[in-house]
Amino acid sequence: MATIKSPVVLVLLYIYMAATVAQLQRFEHPVKSDGSLSFLVVGDWGRRGLYNQSNVAYQMGNVGERMDVNFIISTGDNFYDNGLIDEDDPAFFESFTAVYTAPSLQKQWYSVLGNHDYRGNVLAQFSPVLTQRDSKWLCLRSFILHAGHVDFFFVDTTPFQDKYFTEIDQEYDWRDILPRENYLSDLLKDVDAALQKSSAKWKIVVGHHTIFSAGHHGNTEELVDKLLPILEANDVNLYINGHDHCLEHISSLNSRLQFLTSGGGSKAWRGAIKPFNLDEMKFYYDGQGFMAVEITEIEAYVAFYDIFGNMLHKWSSYESTHSAW
Ligand SMILES: *[C@@H]1O[C@H](CO)[C@@H](O)[C@H](O)[C@H]1NC(C)=O
Question: What is the Å distance from ligand 1's center to 314 Cα?
Fold first, then answer.
């Protein structure tokens, strides 16, 4: 290893390290006094209450109150069809503030972007003006959330998918993404580094796109190739996504990873179910609904609900120091 003699080299080295060391913004959210954490997950929702969005919101309010949820996660496709036009777009009020009105939902929302959000003005969704208008709103591309014994890693998955860069009939807002190869390799490096550093008992990764799914879109091969190996190498417990407009639970056969799709926030019933390995497929529902999660130091509970408040599927898991399930 070369010894550093010149202060210029030191400064350059510092700049280089600052540019390569994890740049993901970090947030902290307190857990409950009993040490547990609970949250709801909804995806693919913003349609001014239509397509059962309001019914999903109503049941989220009920379940959210019963569980006294700490926060809500949005898996993206926040505003249909084409994201927000700008920070004054009335869709923000009509599809978000005016829909998720239940008292239990007036908690912090943590949102990522979906491909439909990229069809509009992406920067508008990050605007502090929206948070001034509705204090529960927060949307970023990729970030980390520490909540007691749980670390969340939110990943901007849209730029991974090749087809958005070749489609000729659709425009995407790629500001701050290009050159794409650099963006993706930096992001993967940052996520990997953050996961490696995490000492949390539970590691949860959230993105818009599926890794595995039997729904209309199916698997996202780019994420299977590039993101999945990082999740497996770092012992991630849950990968949570939207994109397919359904509720779904797929269990990995070769790692602890559970793939949970909560994309039933509004329009659903595509009627498309791809064949899938039934050993892995634990649950598939083609209609609207949402997911609820509770995590204590030692156990995680996941449940899916439909628009009538019926629990459709539940799953739980213990996490000991050297767990196996
Ligand atoms: C709303 O939900 C009901 C019950 O699942 C379903 O029958 C109906 O088709 C849904 N409506 C729309 C527009 O998706």
Answer: 22
Residues 6+ apart with CB under 8 A from 68: 32, 38, 104
* Length of the chain in terms of residues written: 325
At 263-278, the pLDDT tens digits run: 999 999 999 799 999 9
Q: What is the pTM of this model?
A: 0.92
CA of 146 to the centre of ligand 1 (A): 36
Query: What φ, ψ does residue 145 adopt, rounded to 5°?
Result: -125, 120
Total domains, the chain: 1
* Residues spanned by the domain of 187: 24-318
Nearest atom in ligand 1 to the alpha carbon of residue 268 is 14
Active-site residue flag, 217: yes
Q: Which two tokens stand for residue 318?
A: 């213990």
The answer as to whether 4 is a domain residue is no
For ligand 1, say whether the CB of 52 is within 6 Å of any of its atoms.
yes
Residue 124: which CATH number?
A: 3.60.21.10
Q: Of 61, 68, 78, give the one whose Cα is nearest residue 30.
A: 68
Query: What's the CA gap between 106 and 169, in Å, rounded?
Result: 38
How does residue 8 score in pLDDT terms, banded at 50, 70 and 90? low
Q: Whose CA is nearest to atom 1 of ligand 1?
A: 52
Atom 6 of ligand 1, residue of closest alpha carbon: 287
